[in-house]
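Archive entry. Fields below.
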Amino acid sequence: MTMTTLPIQVQLTETKKPKPDSETLEFGRVFTDHMFIADYTEGQGWHDHRIVPYAPLSLDPASIIFHYGQTVFEGLKAYSSEDGVIRLFRPEENMKRMNLSSDRLCMPQIDEELALSGLLQLIEIDKDWIPNAEGTSLYIRPFIISTEKFLGVAPSRSYRFMIILSPVGSYYKEGIHPIKIKVESDYVRAVSGGTGTAKTAGNYASALKAQQVADAQGYSQVLWLDGVERKYVEEVGSMNIFFKINGEIITPAVNGSILEGITRKSILELLRHWEFPVTERKVSMDEISSAYENGQLEEIFGTGTAAVISPVGELNWKGEKMVVNNMEIGALSKKIYDTLTGIQTGKVKDPFDWVIELNQNLVKQL
Amino acid sequence: MTMTTLPIQVQLTETKKPKPDSETLEFGRVFTDHMFIADYTEGQGWHDHRIVPYAPLSLDPASIIFHYGQTVFEGLKAYSSEDGVIRLFRPEENMKRMNLSSDRLCMPQIDEELALSGLLQLIEIDKDWIPNAEGTSLYIRPFIISTEKFLGVAPSRSYRFMIILSPVGSYYKEGIHPIKIKVESDYVRAVSGGTGTAKTAGNYASALKAQQVADAQGYSQVLWLDGVERKYVEEVGSMNIFFKINGEIITPAVNGSILEGITRKSILELLRHWEFPVTERKVSMDEISSAYENGQLEEIFGTGTAAVISPVGELNWKGEKMVVNNMEIGALSKKIYDTLTGIQTGKVKDPFDWVIELNQNLVKQL
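PREDICTED_STRUCTURE:
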């Protein structure tokens, strides 16, 4: 990957914040010293790309973001390893997806190369914030908000693109324990024709209620079904989902309502590289239930940036409890987890050219 | 209606802004001198209710509102009339609905009386901003945003409730002209199990795309169909919809995906008061098309706070163009419009006790 040198103004902070303890880090509560910003104005395009000290935003109360939710975001991670190299996992895929999301939300396209260049410079500046403890990483949140001061329901004529960074703890501090999932019968995440394929705020706001109900019933996530027939599997929480049934891996096909995860895509590529039988298609809960009864439901796991692999140990479908692999992580789930996290941290060879090594790239461009 | 006296701190501005010309006012671009604010903190509840000078908000870039869209809003109007009385139309219904929306979005309930009291005080302070020209009004926007600095997908532990005011021009500056509507076949606004019944940002963000496509085809709004069978009528743009077929008024029944409009509700009450035949039920596009072919499709109109009544002159369903009432406003549509706007501005007697007269109420409470 080549990067063009582009004009990003840099203003460094004069008061560096104390860094948190790597061992006690949570998710998404602490942010680094700087942030990347670019502004968009209709007729002018994106302008004033800059890295500045992390600080509050000042926005008019009538800004469209507060009322009509015209916004998109992304999530990815940078990893610091024993070899001193900082690695990013397929960041160009995030920038590409952000543009797809923006298109659905009637928002302007970003220059993906420039955004990536800004991200790499930002990480270089705040690299001391990348935690070192096993499983920790620097979470990266690019997002675009609509900033026009207008209460009419119409696409904004101005936007702000930002990237903020947050050192985050290990998702599996106490080892990988499979989670218990409730199959959601009342609430729907998304329907074909809606915004389910876009990474946009409204999808997450609407999911809170089902999550709250499931929590109270002792389930840590919900499994979403399609909004039309309420029988086909879509996603689990905010992850994609994979089933291992009778020696084959099956994941719901991209259908206009599920989010096309980058971890999902990478796992499909990895499985095909291994020549492991894998299919993308519709998967109904009836099929899952039958496979369970026949003893063929071997493994279930969610996939996403935060956990990489999140094994599912129990599925509750209208009161029917299916216990998967004795509530233990499956052998294939474990192998995928080890391989992907190994590639991300440089411990396993990357045959796909997925990883960007930060230092190397900065040498090229700065 | 009685109001309790409650402690709302008031800080008046020292620099009043110039007021816009009533004749050239647009919608939602100009705001008054003050705003109402209350803050919510988990464990403490709502606190610091205050009226302060209108000013930008300062929010951390990691605030939940920017990422996951946990927010609700309302829209209503205050009218200034020749008799010098300021009137509000059923504002308690807006506060009630805001709490219903908040429940769907896992947000805390507001004290409806206190919010209404704050609104009335705010209007009293900024009453010189209420425009006088025919058809103009003061648009009122209550909204609640999630303010916790956290990237986890979970309900926020802090919120800000605000009310801002905007003097707005007449919706029908050049008389009432029926609009052309495209029946939407590709995009879906909401589905049962989603957030369609809540007044929340994501519903509006997701609607932008279909609106943009319709605009380009010469249609000013889209008519949304249900997301499951794609055959039943839901809403038009961000309005509810009514059909007059063979002497009867029919509107889609509340079904878990349409917004329960206050104008919709008022029109149903008005029609029943008139003993006009009216039904809330499922309405399919096939039925509308048949009625059109039989010459029984007499009137169509959208209903909402902005336009009150928006007559539909043409419906385009998959290329079939149905021209309604020769592109002229129907007699019943006109009668409903005149009655409702008459009640709102005090020109027509209000037999329903819908209108709150501001001055009277403030005497009671201040």
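CURATOR_NOTE: The first helix of chain B runs from residue 64 to 68.
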